[in-house]
Amino acid sequence: MERVDSEYYKGFEGEPEIQFICRKGNDSETFIIWEGYFNQIMRLIEPDNDGWKGLAYYYHMYSGWYEESPWKVPDLYIVLKQFELLNDRMLCDEAGQILRKMCDMFKKAIIGKYEIFIGRE
């Protein structure tokens, strides 16, 4: 069964969108957001002593989903930890809500052994 949530893209039609696709077999859930919200979230992630890790690495190096879409997100545990450490009070209300939904999606994927893909349109 396929479910699509585009609540955080409404009003931004025609602007770049980011799609988070959580998939296992025929079961998939797609969360579509305006790229501006995604940028707000990703800019809060800081490199550690060894540099960028997880999704932040691909974001800052313009690789991964920039080159192929949809692109499978590696290291879901690292990405979830990065998101959980962010202070959502540094984000606008909508981006804070998106961050919490993304954390929920990554938790679900880890527990249920789903894969997560990112698409950029």
Features:
single chain, about 120 residues, alpha+beta, five-stranded mixed sheet
Summarize this, please?
By secondary structure, the chain is an alpha+beta fold. It contains four helices and five strands, in the order E-E-E-H-H-E-H-H-E.
Structural overview:
There is one protein chain. By secondary structure, this protein is α+β, with helices and mostly antiparallel strands. It is about 35% helix and about 25% strand. The protein has four helices and five strands, in the order E-E-E-H-H-E-H-H-E. It has a five-stranded mixed sheet. Helix 1 packs across helix 4. The radius of gyration is 14 Å and the shape is globular.
Number of strands: 5
Give the N-terminus to C-terminus distance in angstroms: 22 Å
In this structure, how is the largest beta sheet organized?
5 strands, mixed
Percent of residues in helices: 25-40%
Quickly count the helices. 4
The rough form would be described as globular
Secondary-structure element sequence?
Answer: EEEHHEHHE
Structural class: alpha+beta
Rg over CA atoms? 14 Å
Secondary-structure map:
Elements: E1 2-8, E2 17-24, E3 27-34, H1 35-42, H2 54-60, E4 71-72, H3 76-85, H4 93-112, E5 115-120
Helix pairs in contact: 1-4, 3-4
